Amino acid sequence: MDTAIYGKFETAWCPGCGNFSLLEGVKRALAASGLAPHQVIFVSGIGQAAKAPHYLRCNLYNGLHGRDVAVATGVKLANHALPVIAESGDGDIYGEGGNHFLAALRRNPDITVLVHNNQIYALTKGQASPTSAPGSTSKAQPQGSPPPMNPLTLAISQRAGFVARGFTGKVEHLAGLIRAGIAFRGLAIIDILQPCISFNKVNTFKWYKDRVYELPADYDPTNWHAALDKADEWGERIPLGILWRDEERTVNHDRFPALKSGPLIGRRVDSETLRKAMEEYF
Predict the structure, then answer these.
(1) What is the model's pLDDT at position 59?
(2) In Å, how far are 73, 83, 126, 280 from 185, measured between CA atoms?
(3) How far apart are CA 179 and CA 32, in angstroms?
(4) Low-confidence ranges of the chain (pLDDT < 70)
(5) Burial of 226 (C-beta count, 10 Å sphere; 0-12/13-18/19+)
(6) Counts for the chain of helices (H) and strands (E), in that order
(7) In what order do the strands lie in the sheet with 84-89?
(8) What residue ranges define each of the domains in the chain, with the CATH number in brackets?
(9) Apex CA 45: angle with CA 130 and CA 97, to 5°?
(10) What is the pLDDT of residue 84?
(11) How far is the C-alpha of 156 from the C-alpha of 140, rounded, in Å?
């Protein structure tokens, strides 16, 4: 399938932003997965990263700041036959949406979560985010930010289904990770490193390029302890790839007997059952 089917739009991003490469990676992953625009739904929050699905021909629900993972979980419950992708930034998903991120780790919804991680709040002009380096200063943090969270060690520690890291400087590799995440049955989290050329002058494209490396072919993503070690590797060497994979966990929608016979979206309302249920409130 040609990526042109997903459209081409004028964006509000700064020239050189990592979002451009990330959007291209998403298009390639969708095309390689054989998904036409009407066959997938994106859910986004607020921020420069959350605008990404706006520049894509697809079904889209644009929600409140930090609520995209929660909404994506609900969409999947309503129609678990539909591929659902939540896409936003590190501030939106790890900050405002941190509680929903934690809930998703417990529930294991069958959704793909794409996090644009530029280690900064870009739309609101450069405040430190949950992943900013310790001591990072801004107008909002003149004394420097506290130590960052590591979302991947957190996700792996809770045995999330699929945990990966990509980089916008390796678009084909990133597209492969996104495709694998979409195909995975369960919660797939892909943390994607990207530069913010306007507000993050430390974690530049070159900074990442000098440090990232792809996990070797013999790396075992089912080794929990090794996955934690790899997720914690940061600084001079930063691993890219599928760090952890667990296909044994129960998927969220499999817990609901009402969904065994198919998605809710395709059913007719049973008026008699609804009437009896409503009568219990009177």
Answers:
(1) 95
(2) 13, 10, 36, 38
(3) 7
(4) none
(5) middle
(6) 9, 8
(7) 59-62, 41-44, 84-89, 112-117, 188-193, 162-167, 238-245, 212-214
(8) 3-254 (3.40.50.970)
(9) 40
(10) 98
(11) 31
